[in-house]
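Section 5.1 Outputs to date
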Amino acid sequence: MIRIVLLLLLPLCGFLPADEIRLADAGAHLSGQVRAVDADGRVEVVSGLSAAPAPLRLKAGTVRSIRFSTEDHELSHPLVRLELINGDVLQVDLHNLSDDGVEVASPVFGRVVVPRKLVKILQVGTGDNDLIYSGPRSLAEWTVRTKEGSLEFAGGKLIASGAVSGKADFQLPQRFVLKFTAAWEDRPNFRVDFAAPDDGSGDPRNGYQFQFNSSGILLQRASPENRTTTLTRIPVQQDQFRDQRVQVEIHVDRRASRLRVFLNGELKGECNDRVKSKANGGGLVFETMSQPGRRHEFSGISIKELDDMLQRHRDEERGDSKRDSLISREDDRWSGRLADMRTNAGRRLFSFAVGFRDEVLEIPMADVSTIFFAEAQTGHGKTNNVCTVKLASGGTLTAESCVIGQDAVTVRHGLLGELTLKRSGLTAIEWPEPAAKKP
C-alpha cells in the first residue's frame, strides 16, 4: 500500500523543481526537498507526504538514488581529468605536482593533495575549451512552436508540458558531441532533432532524430526526399529508467558518416549514416508529443567539438606499469619519471626524467594529453563503499559514508579520507542494488 500512495501523491510534490528520490520498492519514487542524509543512509525529506514542518523519515536501505534540484549551474568545469586507482574520476584544476603528490582544486570540494600512489591517470585539456554551447540559460534562446502545450524555463531547465517544441541554431563543426539529460512524468514521449536545417522552418528533413517513446529508442536520419531511415534501434528494458530520466550523449562524425549513442555513460549504439546527402545543418530541436499536462524536462544541454584523442590515449596499452608514462597531443610517448611541475615565463611545464638523457625533458602542459602514473608496489585494501556521489563539476566519488546537511555534504572516501562538498555541487547520490540472495 505504501508504494501506491507514493505514486499517487507524486504530482502533488511538484514534479520538476524538487529533488527526485527513487525507492527500493520497484517503481516507487517521490519528490520533495531532501533535508538530510545520515551516515547510515537514513533520509529526511519534506514532501507532500509529510506533515509540515516535520520531515518524512526514510529508513536506511530503502532509498536507491537521489537526484538533486539544487545544482549550482554557475560551477566551473575544470580542464584536468584525474582518475584514481579505484576508478573514481574527478574534473579538477591542477596546481602543483611533486614527489609528495598531485595538488588539485575542485569547485565542489576545494583544494586537496592526492598522494601519487593513489593517482592512476591525469589528462589535460578535457574541459570546456572546445565547448560550443552549454545551457539552457533562458527561454529567449529557443524558438517555441506549440500545438497543445507550453515550454517554460526554470532552474536551468526547459520544462515542456503537452505537445510543444523549442528550436535553436548553432554553427556546428563536422564532428561534435551533443549531450543532454531528459526527465519525464509518467512515460517518455519526446524527440530531439539535431544537425537539422537552419532556415527557421522547424522542418527536420536532412537531419538526425533521437526518439524515445513507449516503443523504445530510435536514432533516425531524415533525408531531403522526405524519407526517414532508421540508423539504429536501442532496446529498453521495462525497469531500465525507474527514476524517469536519462542522460544522452551522441557523438556525431559527419565526415565519416558515423554516430555513437551513450545512455547514462554507457555505449548503447553505433551506426553508419547510409544516406548519401550530408546532414550539414546546425539546428537543435527538443519536441514533446505528450498529452496536455504531461511534463518533460531537458537540462544539461551541451555541444562540444568531438575530439576522441583523450579517450583513445586513455584506452591504449600503457607499457611498463612500474614507470610513469607521458603521451603528448602529437602522439609522442615517453617513459620514465614525472619529477615535478613549474612555471617559466608564464608557461606551465612538466619536468620528465627519461633514461636516454641526463637532463630532464621540460614539456609544456599545453602539449600534454595523458599521463599514466607508476603503479604502487603495495596494494590498497578494498574499501567499504556504500554509495556513489555524482558531481556537477564533472566526475564521481565512491564513498564509505555520505552525510548531507543544509549547505554542506561530508563524504568519507576510502582513499582521500574525509571531504567536505558544497551541497549545490551534487547532481545525484546512488546506492547499489543489494546482491541477490543465493538459493
